[in-house]
User: Which sequence fits this backbone?
């Protein structure tokens, strides 16, 4: 009887702990998804990425895991496209 | 998300994250979603197409494809910079002749929803939105964890316009 009670209590504690963590994680992800960052923030965040701890095997080439797109941009009408951020003359039509 | 996925995504972000941020600035595309997709399409930036030709998405060359400077013997587009390739991807999604706007890509509330809507818009016919998302979810999660970046606003573009307007006054 007592044992059963303790087991139930432990199971409930674990379940509520997991549930709490799940809710916390959902809220955290929702906040991140709703975030709008500036380009400066992006630059800062990317600059601060430390890659010194990356193991050599994670630097080895791997095959793409996603299927290649079947919808290709080859037929896009680029004639009216102007991009001021362009790095070269190909966007300055 | 495995440590391996996290490490590879970290390296990809370090090398190409800023190019992606610049390309999607002010478009309504989620940073983590685009990173997840591009990681999956380019083997985390390690595929031969990505390394040698700056082609991060199996893009085929076509006459008039802005940003492409040529093609490989197999017909893949060659881009001068990774940024140029990411811009083509962005413009493809924005194109009024395609179905991405209609499928809700730019009204999505999360990177995951956006990726599924890209597939619904016809991006890849050989898969389902759910199956496609499963293949890049690890990199999406890793990007969100590592950088914590959401959509990138168009403040810089607004500032540039403001600056040019002020200069002409």
Assistant:
């Amino acid at each position: 009887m007592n044992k059963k009670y303790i087991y139930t209590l432990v199971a409930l504690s674990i379940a509520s702990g997991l549930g709490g963590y799940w809710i916390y994680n959902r809220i955290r992800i929702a906040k991140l998804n709703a975030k709008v960052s500036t380009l400066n923030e992006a630059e800062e965040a990317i600059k601060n990425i430390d890659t010194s701890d990356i193991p050599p095997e994670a630097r080895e080439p791997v095959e793409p895991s996603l299927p290649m797109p079947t919808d290709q941009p080859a037929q896009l009408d680029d004639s009216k496209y102007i991009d001021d951020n362009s790095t070269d003359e190909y966007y300055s039509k | 998300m495995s440590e391996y996925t996290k490490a590879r995504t970290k390296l990809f972000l370090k090398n190409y994250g800023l190019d992606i941020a610049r390309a999607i600035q002010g478009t309504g595309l989620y940073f983590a979603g685009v990173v997840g997709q591009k990681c999956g399409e380019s083997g985390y930036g390690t595929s031969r197409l990505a390394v040698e030709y700056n082609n991060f998405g199996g893009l085929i060359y076509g006459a008039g494809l802005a940003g492409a400077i040529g093609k490989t013997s197999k017909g893949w587009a060659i881009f001068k910079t990774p940024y140029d390739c990411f811009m083509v991807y962005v413009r493809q999604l924005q194109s009024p002749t395609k179905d991405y706007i209609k499928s809700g890509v730019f009204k999505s509330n999360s990177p995951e929803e956006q990726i599924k809507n890209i597939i619904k818009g016809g991006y890849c016919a050989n898969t389902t939105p759910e199956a496609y998302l499963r293949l890049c979810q690890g990199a999406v999660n890793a990007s969100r964890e590592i950088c914590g970046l959401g959509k990138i606003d168009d403040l810089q573009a607004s500032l540039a316009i403001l600056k040019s307007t002020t200069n002409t006054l």
About this structure: Residues 37 and 43 of chain A are 10 Å apart (CA to CA).
